[in-house]
Design goal:
single chain, alpha/beta, Rossmann fold, 4-stranded parallel β-sheet
């Protein structure tokens, strides 16, 4: 029998997760991370690859088939809520006597596209390349004309490289720079941040 001991430093999280999962309305749930140890997780990964186990491949087919719809339903409401909040934050900051423009944006690509289109106070943007951007916002990207810089991790396991390249191509800016570095999502080199700082220094000074 395999016994997996939960470290003492996560006992509070465990109790909170169990309480939240069992007291929620409707279907109850428990996080699977508490049900498998490392050996069990490895076995499950092997099982998922067996030809007799078709659930994983069915899930993948459904995700591929409905990827655009899923992204639209998740991301667009977030953008529609976040952009006015960003603009209100800008109003508050720029009302302070010690702060003035111009303004740059660095953050979530989908939010930044909408901001760059509707907010004239933003003069330059820096994006971390993301392929999962709704189709409507990809069309809006053609309206982005301010200087922009895009950072792309070439081997990003959570990002569709071709979609990210297509999005970069769609931007309407005459000055746009793509910085591509080898490595995964968390392998961004230090000099990439330094380049972003120089990019903003050029356009916001």
């Amino acid at each position: 029998m395999l016994v997996h001991a939960i470290p003492s430093n996560v006992s509070y999280d465990f109790a909170a997760d169990v309480r939240a999962g069992l007291t929620r309305s409707g279907q109850k749930e428990l996080p699977s991370k508490y049900l498998y140890d490392e050996v069990g997780s490895a076995l499950f990964e092997v099982i998922c690859r067996l030809p007799q186990y078709g659930l994983t491949r069915a899930d993948e087919r459904l995700l591929r088939r409905h990827a655009d719809e899923i992204v639209d339903r998740l991301v667009i409401p977030l953008v529609e809520k976040a952009v006015p909040e960003w603009q209100a934050t800008l109003d508050a900051l720029l009302s302070l006597p010690e702060i003035d423009g111009p303004v740059g944006y660095a953050g979530m690509t989908a939010i930044g596209i909408r901001l760059a289109v509707v907010e004239p106070r933003i003069s330059a943007v820096n994006f971390f390349a993301q392929g999962f951007v709704p189709g409507a916002l990809r069309e809006e990207a053609r309206q982005v004309t301010i200087p922009l810089q895009v950072l792309l991790q070439w081997d990003d396991e959570g990002n569709d490289r071709q979609l990210a390249l297509d999005l970069f191509d769609a931007f309407g800016s005459r000055e746009k720079t793509l910085q591509a570095n080898m490595g995964g999502h968390t392998g961004v080199p230090q000099f990439a941040g330094e380049d972003a700082a120089r990019f903003f220094a050029r356009h916001l000074s």
